[in-house]
Amino acid sequence: MNQEYFVEAGESAIRIDRYLSDRNQEISRSYLQKLLKDEKVLVDGKPVKSNYKVSAGDKIQLTIPDAVELEIEPEEMDLDVLYEDKDVILINKPKGMVVHPAAGHFSGTLVNALMAHCRDDLSGINGVMRPGIVHRIDMDTTGVLIVCKNDNSHNSIAQQLKDHSITRKYYAIVHGVIKEEEGTVSAPIGRHPVDRKKMSVNEKNGREATTHFRVLERFKQFTYVECQLETGRTHQIRVHMASIGHPLLGDVVYGPSKSPYKLTGQTLHAGVLGIVHPTTGEYMEFHAPLPDYFEDLLRKLRAT
Predict the structure, then answer these.
(1) pLDDT digits (tens, 9 = 90+) for 105-164
(2) How many whole angstroms separate alpha carbon 237 and alpha carbon 140?
(3) How many helices (H) and strands (E) does the chain have?
(4) Is 58 helix (H, G, I), strand (E, B) or coil?
């Protein structure tokens, strides 16, 4: 699998192993260092060492050998299909489902289910571990996810994501009562400087990120909000809302370690996804209804 990156202004002077690690969460930094040693990383066509510091304008080519020894098996599962044609399939992902295989999750993922459902009709751009996957949502986030069935549709959706032209609306319950009716958080997000498993608002090494939020309903101690993404950084809504003092209810990574309700992870649902169809050029919008646990929680909050 080949990947290309172009270092933007403001990203200079970062070690290349760290730069690549921040953009490839599934790959350990030690494995990236091995790839650098094996000359699988080129900057402007030439191999570099792990301690090379990137500069604005650098063209980085990363070659990740196919994991041929690892076979991802199709698994028959019940999928909540919102829409499907020859180019794309839209899934309402349930809570607790991992999107694609990675260390510790080689079965039971959405990719395993898609391989059984779509057979050979999945784009191959992201290799054997992530066929068809052009974006993802966290394991405990529910809602609509688009998967591409061929390379043409994959390239089209990837470009729309890059251009920030895709409509993505999420629904969340956050701690605290937000006074404003709506607002915007524009703050760069990067790997946490200490805890590498977390993301954080990172002015120095972060990538630009913008989240718009709108209050839907207020409760005594919580607020129900709609968040619309301009960018799609890892954990973006979770990090941005926590940064303004309103972490997501149930999010033990970026919020309180204990919740007054029995929850599995953050209360976050990808409710709306709008795209320009790769073949027809028509704008299409897909909606995933709130999951039962989310509706039940809203009823409890309204009753208190």
Answers:
(1) 678 999 999 999 998 899 988 877 788 999 999 999 999 999 999 999 999 999 999 999
(2) 13
(3) 6, 15
(4) coil
pLDDT digits 0-9 by tens, 211-261: 999 999 999 999 999 999 999 999 999 999 999 999 999 999 999 988 889
Q: Which amino acid is at 145?
A: L
How far apart are alpha carbons 130 and 109 in whole angstroms?
10
Q: What does R_g of the chain's alpha carbons equal in angstroms?
A: 20
SS3 31: helix
The rounded distance, in Å, linking the Cα atoms of 201 and 215 is: 22
**How far does CA 285 lie from the centroid of its chain?**
19
pTM, full prediction: 0.77
Residue pair 26/18 in contact (Cβ under 8 Å)? The answer is no
d(CA 9, CA 12): 7
> Which two tokens mark 126?
């992201």
Report the alpha-carbon distance of residue 103 to residue 39 in Å, rounded.
24
The pairing of strands 182-186 and 210-218 is antiparallel
Looking at the annotation, which residues are catalytic?
Answer: 138
69 contacts: CB under 8 Å, gap ≥ 6 = none
100 contacts 110 by C-beta, under 8 angstroms: yes
For tokens 């061929």, name the residue. Answer: 150
What's the start-to-end Cα distance of the chain, in Å?
Answer: 52
